[in-house]
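Hey, can you fold this one?
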Amino acid sequence: MKPEQPPSPSVPFPSLEQFQYKLFRKSLAYMLAIGLPFILGYTFFYHFVFDAASSAIGWRLLAAFWALCLFVSCANKNYQGYSSWAVVIFGLACYTSVVQHMLSIAPLADALPHSVTMSTVFIIGIMAISPMLKKAQTVIGATLITIMPFLLIALNFPEEKIDYTLVARQLTCAIFAIFLGLKLKADSIESYHMHFKLHQAGQRDHLTQLLNRSGFHLALSPHIERAKRDGSSIGVMMIDIDHFKVINDKHGHDIGDLAIKHVANQVIKSSRPYDISSRFGGEEFLIALPNISPEELIIIAERIRSEIEQSIFKTPGDTISLTVSIGVSTFKPQNDNTLLEGAIKMADSVLYQAKRNGRNRVCSALDIAPAEFSAISP
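Sure. Predicted structure:
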């Protein structure tokens, strides 16, 4: 089950794959810490120098390609499913080549213990990276790692009898690794959902589920960077509920809270899907509208004002008419973000100008000369 998405554009949050990718990198580090010393010790023990006619060259190429797959998987922050299949398939090929090489240069009595030990290392590896693997990959990888030594023994030494007790132990180990790996994957998904909820709770207003101030700035940040590149404008809209104190005094704070939620819902309904809506404080709302012209900004502001005026806000004992005053301004982001704060102050200033002009109206900073702003104060 995917986390529920909030009603307005949210603060950027990594996808489940990106979240698991971080776990994958940690698990891979643990796996290498466990497996690398063993593999280096093994290769040092056998000198890792064989005749050109042996399988050493093929093993080296497979090992190098497998290392390349692991490197690509770590370097690719937008982790894709095909990368995990490459790691599993070529890891199995590398492992098979090592086992086959051991069987070809050592007696069965010596090669089998090394094969079993090697399989344990690779099973630990499959289990460690399981959060990034599909269930089928975990099952296939662990199962093939377990049966591969015995399959190769059967092919290389058909006259030898296979120790089925050892086979059973290996299968038990694989089953344990599979269940533990699937549990690790399930835990990673559960952890992701928990982090997602905590993330949303920390960036959203509890009453309206709109972004709070912190969430507003985080969500707007990528739009500012995009506007710097393409030279587009960002609109800023400050909205305030008219006569809100009267509503609280007459009907109580519970009704006041419902009025705030009602206006928040109308704001979301009347805004564009990618506009960034936030509760600025009390009965005030702040909206950022990326890639918009001044004319479009006025049209959307008027639409929000009109929708709120025409909407019906019913209380248990009465129907209340709600109106809002709106101040708007625009800015073009440059190398710093000071223009955003200036645009917010402008929108806030003309909001109070709208209230002084009679409320239930839109006032634009574009209609006021810069020199007049000093005369407009809350």
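The CA atoms of residues 122 and 145 lie 7 Å apart. Let me know if you want another pass with a different chain boundary.
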